[in-house]
Amino acid sequence: MKATEMLTQIKTLLGTKLNLAQATLEDGTTIIEAEVIEAGQAVFIVSDNERIALPVGEYTTSEGQIIVVAEEGTIAEVKDALEDEAKEEEDIKEEQLEEEVSVEVPEATAEEVATIIESVVEVIAPIIEEVKEQVEELKKKLSEMEEGEDEKEKLSSLFIIFVSSVARGNTKTTVQCKDR
Predict the structure, then answer these.
(1) Beta-strand (E) ranges in 57-112?
(2) 0.70 surpassed by pTM
(3) pLDDT score at 75
(4) For residue 23, what pLDDT is reported?
(5) The pLDDT of residue 72
(6) Residue 45 belongs to what domain range?
(7) Residues 111-134: b if buried by 16+ CB within 10 A, e if exposed
(8) CB 73 within 8 A of CB 54
(9) For the chain, what is the domain count?
(10) What single DSSP character describes residue 170?
(11) Which of 36, 59, 80 is the last residue in one of the domains?
(12) What element of type H or E holds 147?
């Protein structure tokens, strides 16, 4: 059973007349009808007491709404035509900004830029070397600290063994450290 037939039967059974929203498309002659013009609603073309499911596509109303039909007879989306146009203009502007700009630089300017870059490199190179040296020193200190931590762990283990032995009453415990 078609949606139009079901709607007619429901009207008949209820004995009431439904107030359906109507809109005229931008061509000025085609009238569409839906319970409410919003996504998810059934939508039809009205002509001489006949209702035909609106085919898949995008339709602009005379009020400036864009009705998107993704499945025949069902509104998928309702957009404002002015907002849609503004978005398209914004997208075009973004594309224009993204275009690559190439400018020919005079040779004299290029030489000046190269000279400036060389000067900057001369100033920065010693600083970079100094930073590298400081990083190496820090690496060495970290390595020494890690070795110190290993030593602390060994001494701590020996101390625990010694205390445990004394706690058991063994007063003649000898601990030898072979690492030194």
Answers:
(1) 57-60, 65-71, 74-80
(2) no
(3) 92
(4) 87
(5) 92
(6) 3-80
(7) eeeeeeeeeeeeeeeeeeeeeeee
(8) yes
(9) 2
(10) -
(11) 80
(12) helix 107-167
